[in-house]
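Run log, item B.
One chain of 396 residues. Sequence copied directly from the ordering sheet:
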Amino acid sequence: MPGSAARRAALVASAVLVATATLVPVSGPPPRPISWCLWCGSQPAADAARNVLLFAPLGASLAAHGLAPLPAGALGLVISVAAETVQVALPSRAPSVRDVLTNTLGAAWGAALWRRRRLRRPASRARAAGATAAGVAVLGATAALMVPAPGQLELFGHWTPEFGHLSFYRGVVRFAQIGDVPLAASAAFPDSAAARGALRAHEPIRGIVDVGIPVPGTAPILAVSDARQREIAFVAARGDDLVARLRTRARSLGFDQPEIRAAGALRGYLPGERVTLEVSWQDGDACVRVDQRHRCGLGPSVGSGYGLLGWIKPAPAWVHAGAGALWLGAIGAFCGLRAPSARVAATAALLLVASAALLPQAGTLRSTPPHQLAALALGVAAGFRFRYRSGSGGIR
């Protein structure tokens, strides 16, 4: 980054980002002691990845001031230990040794990336092919990780359960089922194998419910858990919205996952009014029905891949649309930066767009919206244009 003023600004910005993400208290459970577990929690892989990405800009900024990766990592270690120590006294924070290790790794990795300055290496067809293959692999992984994964343990059904980390729904469930399998109330499924099969097959989750008073937070109406008390599926109210989740391969590997959200699906219903709820899946898409109100187009798409690191909730649909477009644009730019010519860049864009358009045929993603396909192509064009205008590597 040219200019000492710009380098100082980048260092201050990255430090503020780290301080904001690690030290700002938010409402939640009381302070907790430091955890020594390296693979605990519902999404340890996503937590680790977020920590690395959080400290990478700080490491790069330190490298821009002359620090090698090892000293930058050591400084990241000191900052991380200090932050985790302060978190012991902050509500809703979960200080851990894993955070210290992954934060340190992020700082060292960011410094190493800055030192190598790959952007200034000459572009080549081989580098462009490798980058495009990596981009296609990321899109493919998104589809593969959205496969339902209810596990192999005994399953339990719940009607308006009281889970400590969620709100309580004050409606009444009269009947519930998954496909043709009855969903028991606070009891084990008589045949867990049949329930798992219905979930894996994306059978619809239905319920007859007397509507409750809207409550803040997420309040489960119907839920399925396993013998280890892990969330397998749920349908919940969040104010007037109806949200649903079905455990996927991503969650079983320690990542986060997108959720289904039908905004305003419960709006207008009075407390005590009886309605029929249904969440269904078909060809990778998800639909929500409340009596005669029916809405589709709610399932994840290739652009939802960003949500594997942390799904933004609650947030309006346009936030997810924008985040998905930025995610795909970044993938496209990564490929465009490595293209030695406009023809190679166009080929990379074509391959990425074709992959994004065809992957929903696997049945785990909905059809890719046009704006996401455009984001991929524009990302490639922007990356290639930046390389051309910066003169790094030339065009051949």
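Observations after the first pass:
- The mean pLDDT is 91.
- The longest helix spans residues 44-64.
Flagged for discussion on Thursday.
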